[in-house]
Amino acid sequence: MFGLHYKLERKAIGLVLGIVIVSSIGGLVEIAPLFTIHQTVENAPDMRVYTPLELSGRNIYIREGCYACHSQMIRTLRDEVERYGPYSLAVESKYDHPMLWGSKRTGPDLARIGGKYSDEWHVAHLNNPRDVMSVSVMPAYAWLSRTALRTDDMGLQLKAQRAVGVPYTDDMIANAAADTYGQAAPDTPFAEGVTKRYGAATNVRAFDGKPGDLTEMDALVAYLQILGRLTDAAYKPVAEAK
């Protein structure tokens, strides 16, 4: 084996051909499954897209590096399922660009954090993690409550998502800015448009506890509260979910 390798190193063309062959095999192993992706990914007729507010929260989550300490993928191991809930399905991340599965957990997995805690808990935790968990090493994000959320570019963000396959409609894109505000303002006429476009089960409330003020805290909490709840496919029998 080593003798063959030494001989190849002395022949440039042979070495290049060897690299091409090995790379082709590796590429085939990675690319071939993509041709059957529709047969391997579960069907989820109830799957919905992120609202503009939730998408903004996801962008903040990425911006602040939350993915570096929190994974969003529950493995099929018994201890993980018992601690976090049903293991993650591929379909649950079909609208995630980029995906945030992660491989490191300084903090717990967040794949099913949605609805587990109240909005007030999330706000307190983000303002100062030590207030709800004394041993936490997570930094505080108190400025999110004081930072107004930008909404004027939400239509462009939804367009970018649609370009990579997320089925946002023209109506959703045209009303992106209004829906961003409306989801955090339940007592305004804008709230009705959110449930009309994204479903009656959509969370519509002042996530940061301050009605009338649209902040980055609203967006991040709205995103955390929808994690694991875009579809209930993981809670159905396997045969039914396919």
From TrEMBL:
Family annotation (InterPro entries): Cyt_c-like_dom, Cyt_c-like_dom_sf, Cyt_c_oxidase_monohaem-su/FixO
PROSITE patterns: CYTC (PS51007)
Record bears the keyword Membrane: yes
Pfam family, one: FixO
Molecular function terms from GO: electron transfer activity; heme binding; metal ion binding
Domain Cytochrome c: start-end pairs: 52-228
Position of the signal peptide: none
Keyword vocabulary terms for this entry: Heme, Iron, Membrane, Metal-binding, Transmembrane, Transmembrane helix
Keyword Protein biosynthesis: no
Listed transmembrane segments: 12-35
Protein name: Cytochrome c oxidase, cbb3-type, subunit II
Organism this protein belongs to: Afipia broomeae ATCC 49717
Lineage start: Bacteria, Pseudomonadati, Pseudomonadota, Alphaproteobacteria, Hyphomicrobiales
